[in-house]
Design a protein that fits this description.
- The complex is a heterodimer of chains A (262) and B (261).
- With 262 residues, chain A is an all-alpha fold.
- Chain A contains ten helices and no strands.
- By secondary structure, chain B is mostly helical.
- In chain B, 84% of the residues lie in helices and 0% in strands.
- Chain B is built from ten helices and no strands.
- The longest helix of chain B is centred in the first third of the chain and has 36 residues.
- The chains are: A mainly alpha (262), B mainly alpha (261).
Amino acid sequence: MAVSPVPDRPPRNWWLIGGVAAFLLAMTGWSAEGIGFSLIELMCNIGGGGRLLAESWPPDFAFLPRLAEPFMETLNIAIVGTVIGGILSLPVAVLAARNLTLGRIVWFADRNFMNVLRTLPDLFWAMLFATAVGFGPVAGALALSVFTIAVISKLWSESLESIDMGLPEAVRAAGGTWLEMLKFGAVPQAMQHYVSYALYAFELNVRASMVLGLVGAGGIGMILETQRANFEYERVAMIILVVLVAVLIIEEISEAIRRRLT
Amino acid sequence: MSTLQPGLQRRIGGATWATFIIAALFVWSMWAIGFSPERLGKLPAQMAEVLGFFWPVNMAYGWDRVLPAIIESIQIAWIGTIIAAVLSLPLALFGARTLFPKLARGVKLISATARAFPEILLAIYFVPIVGLGAFAGALAIGISSIGMLTKLGAEVVDSIDYGPVEAVEAAGGSRVLALRYAVLPQVLPEIIAHWLFRFELNIRASAVLGVVGAGGVGGVLLNTLRYRHFDKAAAVLVLTILIVLVIDLVSGEIRRRIIRG
C-alpha cells in the first residue's frame, strides 16, 4: 500500500467560494459604477492635488493664537459629552446584559434602543441637536453624550455578560436587593473595563468634537468650515495639524492610563 | 488586617481623586460652553417640540430622494473598505513585530497618523482634487480606514502560532512562501472579520461625508434640516436607522461565522 507523502487536502466547497467571489465582484463593480470611480480621473487630477498640498504648505502659524479658544471649547465639548454619556450608559449597559437585566422585555427593549442609537453617526446627532437647541457647543456636547452612550453601553454590556455570576448570586442569596447585587456583586468585577471603555470613548469624542463645527455644533470645526469656504488652505492645514497633534497626544495619555489599569 | 489596609487605602484614595478631578473638569467645561442648569431644565420641552415637527414622516420623499442617497453611501463605504483592505493587508504583514522587527515600527507610525485623521478632514482635501461627489468620499474613507485595519491586522499577525512559519523555513521555503502557507491561513479569518467590522463603521462615516459635499445621505439630512423640512429629515432618519440595522445584523452574523470557522 503506497502511502501518500502529503495528506489529502480537505475538499473545498467550490459552489460557496464561487458564489462569494461573484457576489464580491458584482458588489464592487456596482459600487464603483455608482460612485463614478475612475482611476483615469484620479491620475488626471493628481496634479491638482499637488497644487492643493503646495498651497497648504507651510501651515499658517500666525493663525495659531486664534485657535486657542475654539480648541479649548472642543475639549470642553468632549469632556461634557463623555461624562454625561458615561453616566447615562451605566443603566443602559446593565439592563442590556442578559445576566443582570430585569426580565426579558426590559432586556429586549433596551438592547434595541442601544442598537438604534448605534446606527446614527455622531454628526447626525450633532445636526439634530443643533436644530433642537440651537447652534453652538451645547448641541455638540449633547450629540457626543448620545454617541458615548452608544459606544460604552455596547462594549460594557458585553463585559458584564462575561463576569463570574457567583458573587452576584451570593449577594442575592444573602437577601440583597437588585441594586445591592449590582453594587457589591456585579459592577466591581467589570469596573476596570468600564474605565477603559470610558477612556476609549473620550478618545473618539475628542476626534469627533474636532469636526462637530462643520454642522454648527461648536468647537474648532466652526473655524475650519469658514477657512475652508474661503479657500484659505494654509489655515486649514494649520487647523488639521493642531487636531492631529492633539488627537495623538490624547491617545497616548489614554493608552498609558489603560495599560496601567490592566 | 493591618497588612492589607495601606494598599487598600491607596487604591480607594486614587479612585476618589480621579472622580474629584473629573467632576472639576466637568463643571468647568459645562460653565465654559454655557450649559447652565437652567438650559438643561428647558431641554426636554425643546426636544419634545422639535420631535413633534418630525411627525408625520414624509415617506414619499424617503423613497424618491433618500433611498438613492443611502445606496450611494453604502457604495462609498464598500469601495472605501475594498481600497483599505487591499492596501492594508501587506502593511499589516510588514507591521507585525514578530515577522519584520525593523519595518514594524515605521508601519506603526504611519498607521497611527492615518488613524488620527477624522475621515471628514481627508474628504475636505479630496473634494477639491477629484471634484464634489461620491468618488472623493470613497477615497477619504479608504485612506482613513487603512490606519485601523493595519493596526488590527498587525496585532492578529503578531499573535499567530510561530511553529508553521519555522516549519516552512526549515523545509527550505522562502519568506514569501512562509507568508503564503504559514501566516495567511492563520490570520485571514480574523482579518476578514475586521474588514467587515470596518465596513459597518464606514457606512456611518460615509453617511456623514455629504456634509462637506462628498456624496451620500449626510448632505440630504443637512439640507432638509437647514430648510426646516422636518418631515423629510424624519424620512432620512427612519431609512438610515432601518438600513444600517439590517446591514449590522447581516455583517455581524457573517463575522461570527467566519471567526468560528
